[in-house]
Amino acid sequence: MCVKRTAKDDDQDIVCPKCGTYLGPKQPLPHSLTRCIKCKLWVNNEGKGHQWR
Question: Which of 4, 31, 33, 43 sits in a 20 to 30 Å window from 53, CA-based?
Answer without folding.
Answer: 4
